[in-house]
Design a protein that fits this description.
7 helices, elongated, 20% strand, 5-stranded antiparallel β-sheet, alpha+beta
Length: 204
C-alpha cells in the first residue's frame, strides 16, 4: 500500500515537472515567434529595397562624349548671333543646359586633335549623356549614338530598326542632307532627342 502511494506521488511529480517544462517551452516559443517574424519582415524590406535600387541602376544608361565647344552664352540670342558671325559654324548646334547656351560643332566619342584647328577657336568639353527613358529604344540612345552604322544608316537592316526610336531613320536622313560626317550627325541627333525627351540628360 505504501509502495502504491509512493508511485502515485512519483507520477504526480513527474507529470507536474513535464507540464512545467512544456509550459516554459511554449512560453519561449511564443516570445520568440514575433521576433522571428519581425526579422523576416526586415529582411524582406531590405531585399525589396536592394532589388528596386538594382532596377533603377539598370534603367539608366550613360555614355561619355566629347563636344567641340566654341563658346558658352547666357542667352540663345547671343549664342545665335555668335554663330551667325562665323560661316564655319553653319553646321553647329546650340544646346541649352542649366540656363546656359553652348555652341558645339561636333560630338566625338574621343578627342580628335585635327578638329581643334578651326576658326573660331575651340576646345573639347567632356560630357556624359544619360538616358532613363521607359521606352527600350530611347533608353539605349546613348549607346546608339556611339555606333556609326546608325548615324550614317549604313548596313542597317530593316529588322534592326526595333533597336532605334521610330523617327530615327527620318531624322538621320534629314541630317545626312547637311553632312556625311558622323560626328556632326551625332551632334544634331543628340540635340533632337535631348530637347524632345525629358528622360535624357547631359552632365559635365
Amino acid at each position: 500500500m505504501k509502495k502504491i502511494k509512493n508511485n502515485v506521488v512519483f507520477q504526480a511529480m513527474f507529470i507536474g515537472s513535464m507540464t512545467g517544462i512544456i509550459g516554459v517551452l511554449l512560453l519561449i516559443m511564443l516570445l520568440k515567434m514575433p521576433t522571428e517574424e519581425k526579422a523576416q519582415d526586415v529582411d524582406s524590406v531590405v531585399e525589396t529595397a536592394v532589388q528596386q535600387q538594382e532596377q533603377q541602376e539598370q534603367q539608366e544608361i550613360v555614355q561619355v562624349f566629347y563636344a567641340l565647344q566654341h563658346g558658352v552664352f547666357s542667352s540663345s540670342e547671343s549664342a545665335a548671333q555668335f554663330v551667325a558671325e562665323y560661316p564655319t559654324l553653319n553646321k553647329s548646334a546650340i544646346f541649352e543646359i542649366d540656363s546656359q547656351y553652348f555652341v558645339w560643332s561636333r560630338l566625338d566619342i574621343e578627342k580628335v586633335e585635327t578638329a581643334l584647328t578651326v576658326v573660331p577657336s575651340a576646345f573639347y568639353k567632356k560630357l556624359t549623356l544619360h538616358s532613363s527613358c521607359p521606352n527600350a529604344a530611347q533608353l539605349q540612345l546613348p549607346k546608339t549614338l556611339k555606333d556609326t552604322k546608325w548615324l550614317t544608316l549604313q548596313s542597317v537592316d530593316k529588322a534592326d530598326t526595333t533597336a532605334i526610336p521610330e523617327d530615327w531613320v527620318d531624322r538621320a536622313e534629314e541630317v545626312l542632307k547637311l553632312t556625311t560626317n558622323p560626328n556632326i550627325i551625332r551632334l544634331h541627333l543628340t540635340k533632337n532627342y535631348f530637347e524632345q525627351l525629358d528622360c535624357m540628360k547631359v552632365t559635365f
